[in-house]
């Protein structure tokens, strides 16, 4: 197969799946992993795709959430820093809501050391990760799968409303003093709102790149949160006017 033909097939796969690993592409196209990596490097240089850790994703507009593989890889060091701080809000035998965000998925990687957790999540990857790495009792929402990573819709909201959690960990598309926590999708916002109103403590995990951004669908005001965890010190206006603890 010619290089051009192979790269066109890679594009076709990404249009169907939105993201794919090197291993998947290698098996699908019957070529070696190094060959795929060279193709991906060239395609990225030409602005055709976005390379992420372990694979690639299709470049898309900002009106939709990026695939989870992209979001988890992007700013991963920031997310790890946030997840390390967030663990102090978890104790053995507590009940937890986890949204489907990539930052919360990174936190889920670190929950194996806790015992007797009960966790409700609308994240498909989060539920799978928890099932493979923890002894937690996991409740996965039913509903419509969105963006290959989130479960949304009225059934998901109805299920969340059947529980009450000690603590909610959520992230956002944007967080500002003016609009609070906002999302690009009304379906994602609806599930997060249900978790928010059924949790005793609400902890926002928000890397610094999202501070000051505002999107269409509002989830909550900053003042309604119990704490914000980010990766670096916010600007003085945000720090002094948030009115809640900010950990970084």
Automatic annotation (TrEMBL):
Residues 3-58 form the HTH deoR-type domain. InterPro entries: ArsR-like_HTH, Carb_Metab_HTH_regulators, DeoR-like_C, DeoR_HTH, NagB/RpiA_transferase-like, Tscrpt_reg_HTH_DeoR_CS, WH-like_DNA-bd_sf, WH_DNA-bd_sf. GO terms for molecular function: DNA binding; DNA-binding transcription factor activity. Gene3D superfamilies: 3.40.50.1360, Winged helix-like DNA-binding domain superfamily/Winged helix DNA-binding domain. Keywords: DNA-binding, Transcription, Transcription regulation. PANTHER family: AGA OPERON TRANSCRIPTIONAL REPRESSOR-RELATED (PTHR30363:SF44), HTH-TYPE TRANSCRIPTIONAL REGULATOR SRLR-RELATED (PTHR30363). This is Transcriptional regulator, DeoR family.
């Amino acid at each position: 197969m010619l290089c051009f033909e192979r790269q066109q097939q890679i594009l076709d796969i990404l249009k169907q799946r939105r993201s794919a690993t090197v291993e998947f592409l290698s098996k699908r196209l019957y070529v070696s992993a190094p060959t795929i990596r060279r193709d991906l490097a060239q395609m990225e240089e030409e602005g055709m795709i976005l390379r992420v850790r372990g694979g690639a994703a299709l470049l898309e507009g900002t009106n939709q959430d990026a695939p989870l593989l992209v979001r988890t890889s992007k700013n991963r060091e920031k997310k790890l820093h946030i997840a390390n701080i967030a663990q102090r809000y978890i104790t053995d035998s507590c009940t937890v809501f986890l949204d489907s965000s990539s930052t919360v998925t990174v936190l889920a990687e670190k929950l194996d050391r806790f015992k007797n957790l009960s966790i409700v999540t609308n994240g498909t990857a989060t539920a799978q990760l928890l099932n493979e790495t923890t002894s937690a009792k996991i409740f996965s929402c039913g509903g419509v799968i969105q963006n290959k990573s989130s479960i949304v819709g009225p059934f998901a909201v109805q299920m969340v409303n059947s529980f009450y959690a000690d603590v909610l960990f959520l992230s956002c598309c944007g967080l500002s003093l003016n609009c609070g926590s906002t999302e690009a999708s009304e379906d994602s916002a609806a599930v997060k709102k249900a978790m928010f109103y059924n949790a005793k403590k609400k902890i926002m995990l928000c890397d610094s790149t999202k501070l000051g951004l505002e999107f269409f669908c509002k989830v909550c005001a900053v003042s309604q949160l119990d704490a914000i965890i980010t990766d670096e010190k916010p600007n003085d206006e945000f720090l002094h006017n948030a009115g809640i603890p900010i950990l970084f």
